[in-house]
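Quiz preparation item.
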């Protein structure tokens, strides 16, 4: 799965110790056409919100009731300044819905540009 498949969830993980469900978005797109990229991300995040708010998440993982939910955006490329602004706004919007939003590179690999 990837960010371009806007109607699906890329990956789900549950950390029972943290009592948190992680819904990951795998984003391998570069930022050459950032308007398309940001629109695609917005569509993907809306799909994740629907999955959470419709109750589908709890149907899929009933033992996660009461857990925090985190949408984790895993980026391959360093985001543009406009993307960072979009992410900051997204953090606030999702926090109002009690959803955590994180973004960054794969922890063990980093961004492609930094290899």
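Solution:
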């Amino acid at each position: 799965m990837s960010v371009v498949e806007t109607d699906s969830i890329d990956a789900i993980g549950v950390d029972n110790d943290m009592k948190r469900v992680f819904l990951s978005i795998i984003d391998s797109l570069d930022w050459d056409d950032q308007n398309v990229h940001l629109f695609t991300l917005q569509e993907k995040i809306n799909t994740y919100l629907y999955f959470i708010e419709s109750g589908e998440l709890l149907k899929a993982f009933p033992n996660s009731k009461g857990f925090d939910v985190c949408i984790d955006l895993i980026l391959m490329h360093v985001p543009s300044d406009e993307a960072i602004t979009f992410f900051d706004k997204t953090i606030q919007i999702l926090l109002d819905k009690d959803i955590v939003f994180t973004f960054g590179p794969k922890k063990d690999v980093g961004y492609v540009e930094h290899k």
